[in-house]
Structure formats: structure tokens, C-alpha cells
Design goal:
This protein has helices at 6-50, 56-60, 64-74, 104-113, 172-175, 177-181, 218-247, and strands at 75-81, 87-90, 119-124, 129-136, 141-148, 155-162, 197-199, 210-212. The chain is of the alpha+beta class. The longest helix has 45 residues, at 6-50. The chain is globular.
């Protein structure tokens, strides 16, 4: 075949594309389970860090298998709710079949659109109730987990993460323990507006639902603050119903 002909160029290019596509598909098939396992373990680390199951550094020093076992040993129950506050599903907490709701972007859109949601609630044996939050930071999504005491109002712990916030500024929502610790003991002001205030000098108000924003990370802090308010609002009916049951 004439290697300078158009037909040769088309055939050669097609073969290269097919071979490369096959290699990529094979690689994705082989790496997929490991990537899924890493993602699940990372979610559980963040969740258990918020729930104060163990210190964050210990959780990140624990291998995936140990994280699965730790979660199974410490979780009491997990279920999902709708915007009406009622349960609409159950999540397995068995070590060999742990179920999570990890499509937070889709849930976030459904919350804002007033559509059907399956919002996860993770109840740990230490009594704390852990929920996710998700929103938009400066350069990409921000998310995390917030744990509440049995009174369904007081924050027991929090852990936040991001996709691409600025190192040394917005990235502090994950990197700085002191920022996460500021949330402990604060309260969501259910029945009021805003439910939570994350802003510059917010703590000067003396209110229990206020945390100061990170200096130099205005947009990241605003995005996280908006996420907290949107998701807290989504859980408000469920938490208020549980708080009343707790009082009884």
C-alpha cells in the first residue's frame, strides 16, 4: 500500500484510535473498582472526622479496609429523607455492603429546584447525626459533612473539602483544623434566617449560629456559607421533628 496515500492515512489513524480507545477502556475497567473503593473510603473519613469518631489525622493514617470496619463498628443507622422531612429510604451499614449517597451535585440541584431528593442521614453510636453539604466555591465545588448533637441543633463537628480552591486561602476550609474546630458548639438557627452565618466578623454578633469567614478567601467562604444554609434548610423539617421527639 502506498504509505503516502490518503487511504493509508485514514486506515492508520483509525487503527491508532481504536487501539488507544481499547487500552483506555481496559485501564478504566481495571482501575475502576480501586478508584471507587478509594472514593468511598475518603467519604467515610470525612464523615467520621465530622462525627468525631477519631481524630482526622488518625483517620487519614488508616487504610481503606480499616476505614470500612471503623465505620461499620461506629454507625448506628443510615437512611434518606425527602424535603418533607420524612424517611424515603434505608442505607445499608454492613461492612461488606456500605451504602452512601455521594451524588451531592445532583442532590444540590434537586434541593434548589424543589424536586425529589434522597438526602442522607448518618446516625453514629456516639449519638451525633451527620449530614452532607455541597455548593460552589471560587473555582469549583466545595462540600463537606456537619455532625449535630442529639438535640438536632448544636454542631458536634465538621469537615470540609474542595476541588480547586486557592492554596493558602480558600483551601484552608480543608487544610486548617482551627477553621473546622470553630464550628464545634455552634448552632443552626432553625426557624430563623439565616440559619447559619459564615461571614467577615460574623462572630461579633455573639450569636450561636455565627463563624468568621477565612481572611482573604471571601468567595470560598461565601460559597461554603451558602451551601450550609441551603442544605441546613433542606434538613430543617427532619431535624425539628427529631428535636421535638428528643424533648418528649
Amino acid at each position: 500500500m502506498n504509505t503516502n496515500s490518503n487511504a493509508y492515512t485514514v486506515i492508520y489513524t483509525t487503527l491508532v484510535v481504536v487501539v488507544v480507545a481499547a487500552i483506555l477502556a481496559f485501564t478504566a475497567m481495571k482501575l475502576g473498582p480501586a478508584q471507587d473503593a478509594n472514593a468511598k473510603a475518603e467519604t467515610l473519613r470525612q464523615m467520621m472526622a465530622a462525627a468525631q469518631v477519631k481524630p482526622t489525622d488518625e483517620l487519614y493514617a488508616t487504610k481503606n479496609a480499616g476505614i470500612l470496619q471503623l465505620y461499620a463498628d461506629n454507625i448506628r443507622e443510615a437512611y434518606t429523607i425527602g424535603l418533607d422531612g420524612n424517611r424515603n429510604g434505608e442505607l445499608s451499614v454492613s461492612k461488606d455492603k456500605i451504602e452512601l449517597v455521594d451524588k451531592l451535585k445532583l442532590q444540590d440541584k434537586a434541593i434548589k429546584d424543589g424536586g425529589e431528593v434522597t438526602l442522607p442521614v448518618y446516625v453514629f453510636k456516639n449519638g451525633v447525626i451527620t449530614i452532607p453539604v455541597y455548593g460552589a466555591g471560587l473555582w469549583g465545588p466545595v462540600w463537606g459533612y456537619v455532625a449535630f448533637q442529639p438535640d438536632c441543633r448544636t454542631i458536634a463537628g465538621a469537615f470540609f473539602d474542595h476541588e480547586s480552591e486557592t492554596p493558602g486561602l480558600g483551601a484552608k476550609i480543608k487544610d486548617e483544623a482551627w477553621f473546622r474546630e470553630k464550628f464545634i458548639g455552634k448552632q443552626a438557627a432553625f426557624g430563623e434566617e439565616p440559619l447559619f452565618n459564615l461571614a467577615k466578623n460574623a462572630e461579633e454578633s455573639g450569636k450561636a449560629n455565627a463563624v468568621d469567614a477565612i481572611t482573604g478567601a471571601t468567595m470560598t467562604s461565601k460559597g461554603l456559607g451558602d451551601a450550609l444554609n441551603v442544605w441546613f434548610k433542606a434538613y430543617e423539617k427532619h431535624f425539628q421533628a427529631n428535636a421535638n421527639a428528643e424533648e418528649e
